Amino acid sequence: MEPVCYKHSDRTGKYYCSKYQRYLCDECLACQDPSLYCKFRKMCFIWEVVKHGTPDMQEMALALAKKIKVRVKGKASVTFLPLNKTIEVEKGTTLLEAAHKGGIYINARCGGKGLCGSCKVKVEDGDLECEDSPLFDKDKDRGFVLSCRAQIIGDVVISVPEENKARALKIVQDGFHVKEQLLTGRSISPLVSIVPLELLPPSLDDASSDLERVRHALSKAGFGNAYMYISLPVLRDLSASLRSNNWKVNIALLHHGFTHEIIKVEEYKPLYKLFGLAVDMGTTSVVAYLVDLISGDVIGSTSTQNRQVVCGEDVISRIICAKGKDGLQIFHDYAISTINSLIDELIAVTKINRNDILSFAVAGNTVMTQSVLKLDPSSIRTEPYVPVAVDFPILHAKNIDLDINPKAGVYVVPGNAAYVGGDITAGILVSGLYTREGITLFIDVGTNGEMVLGNKDWMMTASCSAGPAFEGGGIRQGMRALPGAIEAVGIDPATLEVSLGVIDNEPPAGLCGSGMISLIASLFTSGILDSSGKFSDKLSDGRLKRREFGNEFVVSWQKDTQLEEDIVITEADIAILLQSKAAVYAGIMTLLKSAGITLEAIDRIQLAGGFGKYIDFKLAIILGMLPDTDLSKFEYLGNSAMSGAYLALVSEDARKELLKISRAMTYIDFSSSNLFYDEYRQALFLPHTDIRSFPSVEKILKK
Fold first, then answer.
1. What angle do CA 115, 519, 525 make, to 5 degrees?
2. What is the pLDDT of residue 30?
3. How far apart are CA 446 and CA 626, in angstroms?
4. Nearest to residue 616, comparing CAs of 473, 519, 551?
5. Most buried by CB count within 10 Å: which residue of 31, 145, 406, 411?
6. Is-above-0.85 flag for pTM?
């Protein structure tokens, strides 16, 4: 049975929106009446896979909630190769669920809904019951199944393909120089201080209580300007701690604004240890710095992929995931298990005691922040888009299940709105935008495109849904910036010969964001791709292949890759990438026009985020992702969210500035902006419908 259009019952619903669970026909797709339909659906990555998919995929969307009823009961074992890891699960469990239970990463871009085809694995042996899936017949013939649609009914052995394995991310900034870069003019004043105290024992002449004795000594040590608090568990151990250490102790104080909390009383050590953890909780990747809070030095840094990817690659999919049965707990567990895995890795390398980690600071977008704190994010998804909170009290590690000292202080960088979170506040702190006379445009390019415009007197901020395309999501052979990712593509305009730059010089495994930008820019300037994103017939060497569902260009032949097939980019891929770049450009121009600012009035344009570092500004202008202006105005900041989280961890001044910044920004909501939609439609071409907006590109095309 074909799906029926939501508005026209006599028409086939060719397009499915999983956000509102409705089908649309061609006429509805073009309709702009906001009272009937979401006017941003043409850029919405939630249903792009279905839009560009086959009829089989569209039919599957109708049955998203349906699962096979496995009648067998009992346990079965699953062995994952090449890791040779075996786990036991209940029969009826999907392979994807089993992998997550065993801590094994398998890519699942659509959140395990069976739409994207990215979670494929190869069955080597065993019993499975499989639903239909959007895999090519050649993959099915070779024994591949979608792990989200394959239920275990007996012992099974599977192989995880190379492209679906978790691998170390390319860390943009290793962290070991942030102290010199960021702490100038700021003293080291972490959330937690260690105060050595030598107390006089009680006597008949001085019979004050143990707690009063400690409070008096702390006051003399310079901490008498605020209320002193101690929890009941610490108070219960206080007397024994003081006496067993002959009244000479180190006191750990957690600073809550106008309150000092005694969180630890231990043996006096003149050379004590004190560490903290700073985390950038990204939608795609999570980065952590382990910091010596006495010196301010970063002693270890690492990163990994966010395990929440099993819920989908975008924040909306994750909000939906959090609404299911036990969804909020699962949502939180994935976030915390990701962070705890980084903690384990850092401790294994540095050999420190995890109980000496007494401070934690995290920066992330609003949805990621709420997942860390196990706050319900559902209100972010619907009008009027209100989060539970955007600034937070100081918490304890045990409150959020962090595997460090349970009493460690937890600081969450404050955000501004539902779609402008603490990662942007942290970025503005690092950028210095809020201290300058001249006007700066700050852009964080990621799954969401967040931007801030302003100077020391005013700041306006906004967010647009760029989608995960430039981080590999929704692109047939897209991937993140991992070893083997194609990060640069050159095409000789005379010979049309293709040259590649690959991370770590490994055989190619896919295309990352910077590779996609350079590829499309090269295809366009070489005349292989027209302004609408369609291939021409210019190629004669076989790289242009015509397929039933759209043409594709071979970027790397199978014999040169890590895969068992050519690496290609399809016209469907290009359409998704054009929508992503159009959203970023439309966001920039809408923010400028909302503020009454011309492009010429901007002194500098700062790009932040892990992906941002690898953007070639000139190529991004050719693509129409960034405005065409003087290249000298562009500046790359690196992972400013991570740098801001580090500052929050080590500096009280920084924490005060972060709160001021979060409250000083004025949020502009694009969801009700006709201006944004108009800008978006015009930007859906290379580089733009109005080539006069891109004079440098026009000059290149005339050559």
1. 130
2. 61
3. 14
4. 519
5. 411
6. no
Distance CA 120, CA 107 (A): 8
What is the side-by-side strand order in the sheet with 510-511?
498-502, 485-491, 510-511
Whether the CB-CB separation of 110 and 309 falls below 8 Å is answered with: no
> What's the token pair of residue 410?
């937890």
How far apart are the C-alpha atoms of 650 and 656, rounded to whole Å? 12
Query: 535: which DSSP letter?
Result: B
Is 209 in a helix, a strand, or coil?
coil
**What DSSP string describes 286-336?**
EEEEEEETTT--EEEEEEEE-GGGGG-SSHHHHHHHHTSTTHHHHHHHHHH
Torsions phi, psi for 120 (to 5 deg): -70, 145
Is residue 503 helix, strand or coil?
A: helix
CA distance linking residue 50 with residue 16, whole number of Å: 6
Tokens linked to 380: 């972010």
**Residue 247 CA from chain centroid, whole number:** 48
**What's the rounded Cα separation, in Å, for the pair 475 and 473?**
6
β-strands 634-638, 604-608 pairing? parallel
Quickly count: other Cβ atoms within 10 Å of residue 125's Cβ.
Answer: 10
Compute the Cα dihedral for 56, 57, 62, 67 and give only its sign.
positive
Residue with structure tokens 């892990």? 610
Going from the C-alpha of 596 to that of each of 296, 586, 587, 606, the distances in angstroms are 42, 15, 14, 19
Closest among 66, 90, 57 to 76, alpha carbons compared:
90
Strands (E), 498-591: 498-502, 510-511, 544-545, 552-556, 567-570
Cβ contact 397:360 at 8 Å: yes
Is 487:499 a contact under the CB 8 Å cutoff? Answer: no
**Spatial separation of the C-alpha atoms in residues 650 and 188, rounded to whole Å:** 6
**Rounded Cα distance, 47 and 62, in Å:** 12
DSSP state at residue 669: -
Q: Encode pLDDT of 181-229 as tens digits.
A: 677 778 899 999 999 999 999 999 889 999 999 999 999 998 877 789 9
**Does the bond joining 3 to the residue before it have cis omega, within 30 degrees of 0?**
no
- Using alpha carbons only, what angle is made at residue 378 by residues 374 and 381, rounded to the nearest 5 degrees? 135
Q: What is the pLDDT of residues 288-326, one digit of tens each?
A: 999 999 999 999 888 888 888 877 777 888 888 888 778
Distance CA 588, CA 598 (A): 11
Q: How far apart, in whole angstroms, are the C-alpha atoms of residue 113 and residue 65?
A: 8
| Residue 279 contacts residue 645 (beta carbons within 8 Å) | yes
Q: Sign (positive/negative) of CA torsion 474, 477, 480, 481?
A: negative
Burial of 537 from C-beta contacts in 10 A (0-12 / 13-18 / 19+): exposed
Question: Side chain identity at 10, as an amino acid letter?
Answer: D
pLDDT digits (tens, 9 = 90+) for 150-192: 888 888 898 887 655 554 444 434 455 566 667 777 889 999 9
DSSP H helices, 71-165, are 95-101, 137-141
| Pair of tokens at residue 481 | 């910036």
d(CA 461, CA 36): 28
Cβ atoms of residues 341 and 393 within 8 Å:
no
Query: CA angle, corner 359, sides to 412 and 448, nearest 5?
Result: 30
On the 0-12 / 13-18 / 19+ scale of CB atoms within 10 A, 126 is middle
CA–CA separation, 650 and 295 (whole Å): 10
CA 267 from chain center: how many Å? 41
| Alpha helices, DSSP H, located in 563-703 | 571-595, 617-623, 640-650, 652-664, 674-682, 695-702
The amino acid that residue 80 corresponds to is F
